[in-house]
Amino acid sequence: MARTIHLSATCLCGAVCQSITSDSVDYAEAHNFRATENLSQDALFCHCNTCRKSSGLMFTSYVACGAPLLGSLDFLEACEAGKGDMRYFCKKCGCHVFRSLSRAGEEDMRWFVATGTIDPVKGLKLVHFVGHENLSETADGGGAVWLKEVEGGEMQMFEGAGPDYYSGTTHQVVLKASCHCGTVKFHITRPDASSRLPTIPFPDLMIAYHTQDPKLKNLDDEKWWIKGDRYLAGTCACRSCRLASGFEIQEWTFVPKSNIFFNTQAGKNLPLDFADKGIKSVLKSYESSEGVVREFCAKCGATVFWRGKWRSELIDVSVGLLEAEEGARAEKWLDWWTERVSFEEDAVAHGRSLVDGLQKGIAAWGGKREAA
Question: How many CB atoms lie within 10 A of CB 65?
Fold first, then answer.
């Protein structure tokens, strides 16, 4: 017998703010997952190419919910991710909110809600993260190598976890990137002289803003985003990233604008210019806070860029879009920061254990990498 709980889901801009129902026990039993006494649902992180490319993130997670109320999808754009697989994202801020699945011969669609959009309920555990799936599509295990344990429980690994580190070589002269629908395409070049021109304060990833550490100002003009011939990359758990994407963890890499080239449908490679009409026609912009703009694909909702007016020459690029031949972590192009999850203090109730597990796991991974 199903036990139903009423929840609410919210996006960053607030255009989507609605009640949903969660029939957790029925869903859990149907998928041989556990259903706890407090109605939490087990959730898997999906690392498939479709989820990475449609979200811009390295993995996504959904839990089952009741069908949205009539008219509640009016503020959402629908994108077909695959046969019978629809994703719904906010037209204004790009947040992925719902997913629907239908199978041949079935009249009713099954509905799911993105876990990062679920508003926490005091005293109630809503989501229980238990494992990773579709890891074979990452080539290197993606972010699963950082999340092997959550709440002291070992995460299940489906379809092979891949190597913890990539030690081979790469023949890629440029690093290509694209969204699921192919509307957004660009490439990144290796650091050069122009990459060192900006003067940029340190990010929260490296020095927590709440500490008000004087070193944040970077008075010594350290080019912290350049790591040899690679770029710094890291994870973020801030509220804005969570509600702009729909998921708890956002992965960014910091790339100078001079090293990003947009690939137009006419076959031209244009230096990234957010004022260019061609680029503006495929990217939707949303000012998530004063001086901060996020870009996402207007057709599939993939998170693409983050930029701030105080560092307009250094762009955050969403890692899930990258097409590195070595795998989803793109280790021949990116140097992952392992000492902190940016804005980990923002983690909501059902994502707190996830962020704690990520901080512990990525630090351990970094230590083993250095030892190797």
Answer: 23
Task: Judge whether 316 lies within some domain.
Answer: yes
In-domain check, residue 277: yes
> Measured between alpha carbons, how far is 136 from 49 in angstroms, rounded to an integer?
10
Q: Confirm if 342 and 204 have CB atoms less than 8 A apart.
A: yes
Tell me which residue has tokens 């989507």.
Answer: 16
Q: Is the pTM of this model over 0.85?
A: yes
Does one domain contain both 191 and 338? yes
Give the span between the Cα atoms of 129 and 350, in whole angstroms.
Answer: 9
CA 83 centroid distance within chain:
23
If you compute the radius of gyration of the chain from its CA atoms, what whole number of angstroms results?
Answer: 20
pLDDT digits (tens, 9 = 90+) for 250-281: 999 999 999 999 998 777 899 999 999 989 99
- DSSP 8-state class, residue 139: S
What CATH number should be reported for the domain holding residue 106?
2.170.150.70
Residues 360, 155 contacting (CB under 8 angstroms): no
Q: How confident is the model at residue 19 (pLDDT cuts 50, 70, 90)?
A: confident
